[in-house]
Amino acid sequence: MENKLILYIAMSLDGYIAGKDGGIDFLYDTPSPEPDLDYEAFYASVQAIIMGGATYRQIRDELSPSCWPYPGMPCYVYTRRQEPENPDACFTQLPPRRLLDAVWREHPGKIWLMGGGQVIRGFLRENLIDEYEIYVQPTVLGEGIPLFPADFPKTNLTLKSCRSIGEIVELRYQRRETP
């Protein structure tokens, strides 16, 4: 099995992964019926998840406070905060490349880079993301947390596929290797 880091994420049409306050309410504004984004198949294909501390706390405290949504899935939380012990998460401050190598040693294969903005930026800056699966929501936020920050270095990608799923556009890219 080939090791890959996959950014699987939704964003607004104007490129934001969350509102200014970190809220993701816009993800639930899609008209009915809710489109099938192949989430279950994607989730079944990954061996581990890497997420940032703010995303972890949002999931734990707001989105799924009564039940951790990733039971049994190795979850690595990139954070500088001291977090209470949690059997569902491994907290780390390792730099992106070292964290990725450590996760692959334990869980070879596909790793889901979930978010949020700060952790994604670290992996982007080091050009460590192998594949991008981006779901563009039919919403313009006007401001918020951008997926690609202004200081993001040039990265060449190759389009693997593009399709509409109801009102959502799925974009799949892979990193283009430079000779």
Outline the structure in words.
It is built from four helices and ten strands; from the N terminus they run E-E-H-E-H-E-E-H-E-H-E-E-E-E. The longest helix is centred in the N-terminal third of the chain and has 11 residues. By secondary structure, the protein is of the alpha/beta class. The strands form two sheets. The chain has an eight-stranded mixed β-sheet with strand order 5-4-3-6-1-7-10-9. The protein has a two-stranded antiparallel ribbon with strand order 2-8. The model has no long low-confidence stretch (mean pLDDT 91).
Describe the secondary structure blueprint for this structure.
Layout (H helix, E strand, L loop, with lengths): L3 E9 L3 E3 L20 H7 E7 H11 L11 E4 L11 E3 L3 H11 L3 E6 L1 H9 L5 E7 L7 E2 L10 E9 L2 E8 L4
Parallel strand pairs: 1-6, 1-7, 3-4, 3-6, 4-5
Antiparallel strand pairs: 2-8, 7-10, 9-10
Distance between the termini: 24 Å
Radius of gyration: 16 Å
Q: Choose one word for the global shape.
A: globular
Strands ordered across the widest β-sheet: 5-4-3-6-1-7-10-9
Q: What is the succession of H and E elements?
A: EEHEHEEHEHEEEE
Multimerization state: single chain
Described by strand count, sense and barrel closure, the largest sheet is: 8 strands, mixed
Instruction: Estimate percent helicity.
Output: 10-25%
Low-confidence stretches: none
Number of strands: 10
Helices, by number, come to: 4
Mean pLDDT: 91
User: Which structural class matches the secondary elements?
Assistant: alpha/beta
State which percent range the strand residues make up: 25-35%
